[in-house]
């Protein structure tokens, strides 16, 4: 994964300084049902662009060496087939998620032998990772694509999709509104990343996590510092607490203090002199140089006392902010562990090497990429459900692709259509206005 995948919210292009890899608006959890629609429907029906054709859905096998997830699982295929869709699955597409071809055919899915057959026969391609150059060549004008595209980072990909006339939707561009929570794949994957990060840290830590009273005396609990209290950060806090660690967490937004404390962690407050630390959308805003220096200084002190640090700070479309310097690492106790969830965009730690685990001055720094793929069974289950829910918005009752551009979810998630770049944040990044 892009594990940490970014929030390409068209309405928001501010730069958070300490923002979770897949931050939700403060106070929202993925499992919480929406209380009510965000807007009152208009009196007049919204304009809908419909193909009028029940779409054939294709699921190719992921070709990225690190990718073990699959876009659709048998449960979601069963629902789509029941709705009248033909679902083409490349043979072996689910094997890394422990799903046999027979599990798909048992629910009405159609197994095809090759990548080419999926792309040639499907009206809509559902993937996890962005398409490769070879896959781009297979896409046809008017064909639809759903995947983690990271359009505000991969501008060349967007240009290629535009030139090909592909109707593309990015799972990392789902708007952060109540109605879209059930299709918020970023939050789903962040839940997995936060959980897995703590397990990896515990495995590398040469100490117990919980307080133990033994015949040899009392053993104090490990001390964990979590930087960023979004979905991944909150899951990391909860997991570390379940393992018995003493946990403290920092986030620029005071609004998340209650969530941190409700999980049994201490909230670190840093006085940067700023009265306003978040945008109207409740994301951390860009910090001034003075504010950032104050944060780094206090975090350096906390880091020196921590056995484990989990960093989750990411900036949409930009390198991750550097919060842990080499000097800070060298002040940490030998045997300490840092798990950097922002490794894919350069890392929050100055010494992080994306895709590698290194030891510097006795401190283990883990920069593993695509953490959600390391739990492929539940990662695929969650992602497939997110896609199923998105298709419920994109497809009409007749099973045709129906693009209601007045719908916030459609307008926020669509990237290209008809040879044009539609997504406003991406248009701005490409200089299209």
Walk me through the structure.
By secondary structure, this protein is an alpha/beta fold. The protein has 2 domains: 184 residues, Rossmann fold (3-Layer(aba) Sandwich); 187 residues, Rossmann fold, CATH 3.40.50.720. It has 13 helices and 19 strands. Strands 4-3-2-5-6-7-18-19 form an 8-stranded mixed sheet. A 7-stranded mixed sheet has the order 12-11-10-13-14-16-15. Helix 5 links the parallel strand 6 and strand 7. Helix 6 runs antiparallel to helix 11. The longest helix has 20 residues. The radius of gyration is 22 Å and the shape is globular. The N terminus is likely disordered.
Question: How would you summarize the topology of this molecule?
Answer:
Layout: E1 48-54, E2 57-59, H1 74-82, E3 87-90, H2 101-105, E4 110-112, H3 115-121, E5 124-126, H4 133-138, E6 144-147, H5 155-164, E7 167-170, H6 185-204, E8 212-214, E9 217-219, E10 223-227, H7 231-242, E11 246-250, H8 257-262, E12 266-268, H9 289-304, E13 308-311, H10 326-330, E14 337-340, E15 357-360, E16 363-366, H11 376-394, E17 400-404, H12 408-413, E18 414-417, E19 420-421, H13 424-429
Parallel strand pairs: 2-3, 2-5, 3-4, 5-6, 6-7, 10-11, 10-13, 11-12, 13-14, 14-16
Antiparallel strand pairs: 1-17, 7-18, 8-9, 15-16, 18-19
Helix pairs in contact: 6-7, 6-11
């Amino acid at each position: 994964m892009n594990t940490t995948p970014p929030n390409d919210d068209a309405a928001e292009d501010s730069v958070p300084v300490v923002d979770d890899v897949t931050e939700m608006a403060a106070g929202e959890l993925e499992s919480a049902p929406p209380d009510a629609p965000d807007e009152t429907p208009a009196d007049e029906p919204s304009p809908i662009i419909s193909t009028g054709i029940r779409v054939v859905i294709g699921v190719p096998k992921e070709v990225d060496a690190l990718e073990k997830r699959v876009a659709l699982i048998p449960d979601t295929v069963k629902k789509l087939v029941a709705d009248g869709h033909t679902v083409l699955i490349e043979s072996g597409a689910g094997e890394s998620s422990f799903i046999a071809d027979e599990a798909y055919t048992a629910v009405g899915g159609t197994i095809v032998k090759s990548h080419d057959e999926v792309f040639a026969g499907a009206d809509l391609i559902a993937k996890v990772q962005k398409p490769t150059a070879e896959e781009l060549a297979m896409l046809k004008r008017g064909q639809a694509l759903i995947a983690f595209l990271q359009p505000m980072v991969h501008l060349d990909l967007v240009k290629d999709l535009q030139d090909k006339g592909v109707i593309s939707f990015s799972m990392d561009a789902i708007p952060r509104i109540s109605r879209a929570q059930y299709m918020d794949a970023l939050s789903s994957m962040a839940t997995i990343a936060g959980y897995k990060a703590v397990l990896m840290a515990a495995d590398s830590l040469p100490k117990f996590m919980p307080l133990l009273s033994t015949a040899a005396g009392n053993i104090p609990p490990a001390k964990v510092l979590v930087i960023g209290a979004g979905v991944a950060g909150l899951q990391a806090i909860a997991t570390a607490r379940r393992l018995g660690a003493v946990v403290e967490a920092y986030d620029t937004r005071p609004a998340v203090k209650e969530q941190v404390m409700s999980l049994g962690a201490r909230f670190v407050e840093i006085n940067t002199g700023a009265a306003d630390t978040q945008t109207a959308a409740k994301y951390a805003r860009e910090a001034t140089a003075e504010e950032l220096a104050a944060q780094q200084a206090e975090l350096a002190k906390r880091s020196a006392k921590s056995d484990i640090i989990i960093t989750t700070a990411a900036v949409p479309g930009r390198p991750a902010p550097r919060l842990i310097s080499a000097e800070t690492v060298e002040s940490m106790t030998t045997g300490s562990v840092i798990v950097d969830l922002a490794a894919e965009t350069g890392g929050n730690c100055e010494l992080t090497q994306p895709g590698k685990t290194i030891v510097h001055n006795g401190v283990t720094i883990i920069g593993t990429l695509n953490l959600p793929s390391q739990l492929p069974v539940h990662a695929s289950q969650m992602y497939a459900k997110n896609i199923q829910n998105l298709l419920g918005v994109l497809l009409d009752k007749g099973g045709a692709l129906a693009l209601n551009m007045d719908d916030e979810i459609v307008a926020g998630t669509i990237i290209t259509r008809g040879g044009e770049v539609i997504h406003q944040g991406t248009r701005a990044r490409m200089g299209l206005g």
